Amino acid sequence: MKEHKAKIALEDGTVFEGVSFGATGERYGEVVFNTSMAGYQEILTDPSYKGQIVTMTYPLIGNYGVNEEDVESREPFVEGFVVRERSSIASNWRSQCDLDGYLEKNKIIGIQAVDTRALTRHIRLQGAMKAVISTEDPDDRSLVKKAKCSQGLIGRDLVKEVTLGKTYRWSEKGKYKVIVLDCGVKYNILRLLALHDCQVTVVPAQTPAEEILNDKPNGVLLSNGPGDPQGAGYVADTAGKLIGKVPVFGICLGQQMLGMAFGGTTYKLKFGHHGANHPVKDTRTGKVFITVQNHGFCVDMKTLNKKDLEITHVNLNDNTLEGMRHKKLPVFSVQFHPEHGPGPHDSAYLFEEFADMMEEHRS
């Protein structure tokens, strides 16, 4: 690998220097940090990271290589990847290539030898912001200007950039017929639905509610996805037309879309929730679960009608909304990722709750 000097410049004028790996070039995105110690391959291929440059807080990344089985979508979606140190050795019996080669093949720019602790602390204090990662432009002023002028996430429809655009069948057999509205769905959601006796069909995010209902599903899952939910309001419109007609389960962006469909509003978090170690309390049982999270926006629980909706989960770090359920209709959602991939399996029970809800609605 030929090393190139690289820089990541933030819109507030902060610049970090490093050495590139993977691809070369220049890419733009909102810079965020992820606190997971492992699972970098799943993070790279999570469509919810479209439009973002991901900084890993764990200092050594790439030590177990990359394989074809642990991907969470058809390709990596991050705009750039920032690490303290890229491991020069990929040692694992399942490894098929190293991280450098994987990023180069998929045209993703990586940058190492960055003070990721300083970058993370800066984001925590100042908030996530627009940035550019470059191996081509050495001029700090030029890079900062480019970062300021870049598109950002607010109001942008990133769902249309990650949804596959065609219908496909994930699993043919199962007691429950489930349609997944693909806003950037992770494969492990589909795997766990299949494990819970579901035949799973995935449809594009723009699919009308009428077309979904004509297929007579036992349930609909609104998937995770990237960016500002306000930019993809058509998904919220679809969700509103499904409510009350079929059991609905929303995950991450899916919760935000349901929140909007119920008349609530969303807002941008200061630096988002990204990682595999976020404590969430189930308000119904008092139990605390360690969850996987990846979102930069949240439903404002103060804007929800508490007569109709019950708050089921709350984030213990900042008391933001992590789950809700309709008191009469078969609809519930969570802001975190119960499908894990990577991360703890604490909240996988929610797929069983979805199956129970479909069973109750069938009888």
What can you see in these coordinates?
Strand 15 (266-282) and strand 16 form a beta hairpin. The chain is built from ten helices and 19 strands. 23% of the residues lie in helices and 32% in strands. The protein has a ten-stranded mixed sheet, sandwiched between helices. The chain has a seven-stranded mixed barrel with strand order 1-2-8-6-4-3-9. A two-stranded parallel ribbon has the order 5-7. The chain is α/β, with parallel strands linked by helices. It has two domains: 5-149, Glucose Oxidase, domain 1 (3-Layer(bba) Sandwich), CATH 3.50.30; 159-362, Class I glutamine amidotransferase (GATase) domain (Rossmann fold), CATH 3.40.50.880. The chain is globular and about 65 Å long. It starts with a strand and ends with a helix. The chain has helices at residues 40-44, 99-105, 116-126, 140-149, 159-162, 187-195, 209-214, 233-242, 253-261, 349-362; strands at 5-10, 15-22, 26-34, 52-56, 60-61, 80-82, 85-86, 109-112, 129-134, 168-171, 176-182, 198-204, 219-222, 248-251, 266-282, 288-299, 309-315, 321-326, 331-334. Helix 8 crosses helix 9 (253-261). The model has no long low-confidence stretch (mean pLDDT 97).
